[in-house]
């Protein structure tokens, strides 16, 4: 019989306490801690500044940094998905003293061009989206993730209207791969689909208009920040449209439990952060590192507090 926890405080305690179990499940062959006199300087450049969405990624990164003797410098652009500012940050870091870069690219193609022109080159690890300039990528199979999310929607019944596929990052290939995967499955099922790009800097006006469309039967958000904004708007406006999204934070877990979000595709953010830093350290030291696609899963409100999902979504660190 499924268990639910009623107190969000317990959820936050689990989040803060750590993630050894996650690493046992997802990273079964972790090498022993490496003893070295050198410290690896790692610049982490994100495309969004929402600390709540990145809290578990940061936990994983910090755990790995402590184990592999690395120092992290986490940077964000001035505004969400500001690719020009992100390129400026990357150029500065690549030309500076950093040993390796970890980047969640707003515009992978643009960043590749800039990094190839940089006078000083250092290894790059990409998160979420494959990037030509990156030595490796830490991400789930985004196309498969989009397809499975669409299948979850179809299993609930697609309704008589159209399904809205929403993204806010048109140049992020990881996001567009999710969108293409979902569109493929919905099209094969004969479900009417509309794609829209949302401006997350307009105060929610465009998202509000889209979610209130009278013929909308369901909406699928292709990235975590957009998922959370849509859920908050649905709840505040009293909308009934089913929402499907990507990523599960502490806030997202509450919305799943309440039924505000019908289902979400998620993976272990802790494992993603840990792997990115471990890979970065190996690359900076000239060591071979092989990474695999992150396993993902579809989670619903009745699942989110089950032990196996707790270990993945809200890890505890050693």
Description:
- The chain has 318 residues and is α/β, with parallel strands linked by helices.
- Helix content is 43%, strand content 17%.
- It is built from twelve helices and eleven strands.
- It has helices at 8-16, 20-26, 55-68, 83-95, 108-117, 142-156, 173-188, 205-211, 224-237, 250-258, 269-284, 307-313, and strands at 40-45, 70-75, 100-103, 124-127, 136-138, 162-167, 193-197, 216-221, 243-246, 263-267, 296-299.
- It has a six-stranded mixed sheet with strand order 7-6-8-9-10-11, with helices on both faces.
- Strand 8, helix 9 and strand 9 (243-246) form a beta-alpha-beta unit.
- Helix 3 packs parallel to helix 11 and helix 4 (83-95) runs parallel beside helix 5.
- The two termini are 30 Å apart.
- Mean pLDDT is 85; it is low at 1-34.
Describe the secondary-structure layout.
Elements (H helix, E strand, L loop, with lengths): L7 H9 L3 H7 L13 E6 L9 H14 L1 E6 L7 H13 L4 E4 L4 H10 L6 E4 L8 E3 L3 H15 L5 E6 L5 H16 L4 E5 L7 H7 L4 E6 L2 H14 L5 E4 L3 H9 L4 E5 L1 H16 L11 E4 L7 H7 L5
Parallel strand pairs: 1-2, 1-3, 3-4, 4-5, 6-7, 6-8, 8-9, 9-10
Antiparallel strand pairs: 10-11
Helix pairs in contact: 3-11, 4-5, 6-7
Outline the biggest β-sheet: 6 strands, mixed
Shape: globular
- Which range best describes the helical content: under 10%, 10-25%, 25-40%, 40-55%, 55-70% or over 70%? 40-55%
Strand order of the largest sheet: 7-6-8-9-10-11
SSE run: HHEHEHEHEEHEHEHEHEHEHEH
Oligomer: single chain
Distance between the termini: 30 Å
By DSSP (H or I, 4+ residues per run), the number of helices equals 12
Our Rg estimate from Cα atoms comes to 20 Å
Average the pLDDT over all residues and give the rounded result.
85
Return the structural class.
Answer: alpha/beta
Give the total of beta strands: 11
**Model regions low in confidence, pLDDT < 50 over at least 5 residues:** 1-34
Strand content: 15-25%
């Amino acid at each position: 019989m499924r268990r639910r926890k009623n107190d969000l405080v317990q959820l936050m305690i689990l989040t803060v306490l750590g993630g050894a179990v996650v690493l046992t499940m997802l990273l079964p062959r972790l090498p022993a801690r490496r003893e070295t006199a050198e410290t690896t300087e790692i610049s982490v450049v994100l495309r969004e500044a929402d600390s709540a969405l990145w809290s578990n990624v940061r936990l994983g990164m910090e755990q790995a940094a402590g184990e592999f003797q690395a120092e992290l410098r986490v940077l964000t652009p001035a505004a969400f998905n500001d690719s020009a500012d992100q390129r400026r940050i990357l150029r500065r870091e690549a030309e500076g003293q950093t040993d390796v870069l970890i980047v969640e690219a707003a515009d992978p193609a643009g960043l590749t061009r800039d990094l190839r022109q940089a006078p000083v080159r250092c290894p790059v690890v990409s998160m979420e989206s494959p990037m030509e300039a990156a030595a490796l990528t830490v991400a789930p199979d985004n196309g498969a993730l989009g397809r499975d999310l669409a299948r979850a929607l179809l299993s609930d019944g697609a309704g008589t209207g159209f399904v809205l596929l929403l993204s806010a990052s048109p140049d992020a290939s990881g996001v567009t791969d999710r969108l293409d995967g979902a569109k493929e499955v919905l099209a094969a099922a004969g479900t009417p689909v509309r794609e829209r790009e949302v401006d997350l800097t307009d105060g929610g006006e465009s998202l509000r208009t889209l979610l209130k469309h009278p013929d909308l039967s369901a909406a699928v958000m292709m990235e975590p920040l957009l998922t959370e904004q849509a859920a908050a708007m649905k709840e505040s406006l009293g909308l009934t449209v089913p929402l499907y999204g990507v990523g599960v934070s502490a806030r997202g877990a509450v919305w799943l439990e309440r039924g505000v979000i019908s289902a979400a595709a998620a993976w272990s953010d802790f494992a993603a952060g840990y792997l990115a830093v471990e890979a970065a350290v190996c690359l900076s030291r000239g060591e071979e590192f092989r990474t695999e696609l992150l396993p993902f899963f579809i989670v619903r409100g009745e699942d989110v507090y089950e032990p196996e999902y707790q270990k993945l979504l809200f890890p505890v660190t050693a």
